[in-house]
Amino acid sequence: LTWNIRGLHPAKLRSSAVRKHVCDHDIVVITECHSVGAAAAQAVVNMGYHLHLAQRSGGGQGGVAVLIRK
Predict the structure, then answer these.
(1) Residue 67 has pLDDT above 80, yes or no
(2) Shortest CA distance to 65 belongs to which of 26, 37, 28?
(3) Cα–Cα distance, 54 to 14 (Å, whole number)
(4) From CA 14, how far away is CA 57, in angstroms rounded?
(5) How many helices (H) and strands (E) does the chain have?
(6) pTM confidence score
(7) Which of 26, 38, 60, 70 is at a distance of 20 to 30 A from 49, taking alpha carbons?
(8) What region does 17 belong to: left with phi over 0, alpha with psi -120 to 50, or beta?
(9) pLDDT greater than 90 at residue 29
(10) 16, 17, 20, 41 from 53: Cα distances, Å
């Protein structure tokens, strides 16, 4: 699954519709994740995924997150 999330925020990850959509896949590539904070990272881990990030330095735009099922 590839998804332009326009900001990876914990509230989006808590949405049951989003969780259902994401959890149907073993690998999820999220673009435009912006700055991923500790709460969002923990929400991904709680969903059963490893989180790998490539964030832009010095800005809250862009960024890619790869979620791989544990």
Answers:
(1) yes
(2) 28
(3) 22
(4) 27
(5) 3, 4
(6) 0.81
(7) 60
(8) alpha
(9) yes
(10) 23, 23, 22, 10
Q: What Cα–Cα distance (Å) separates residue 24 from each residue in 13, 32, 35, 49, 56?
A: 14, 21, 25, 12, 28
Cβ-based neighbours of 33, under 8 Å, separated by 6 or more: 5, 7, 8, 53, 55, 63, 64, 65
Based on its alpha-carbon atoms, the radius of gyration of the chain, rounded to whole angstroms, reads 11
Unique residue bearing structure tokens 């969903």 = 47
Per-state percent for the chain, helix, strand, coil, to nearest 5: 30, 30, 40
- Residue 11 has phi, psi (to 5 degrees) of -60, -40
- Specify the DSSP element, H or E, that contains 38: helix 38-46
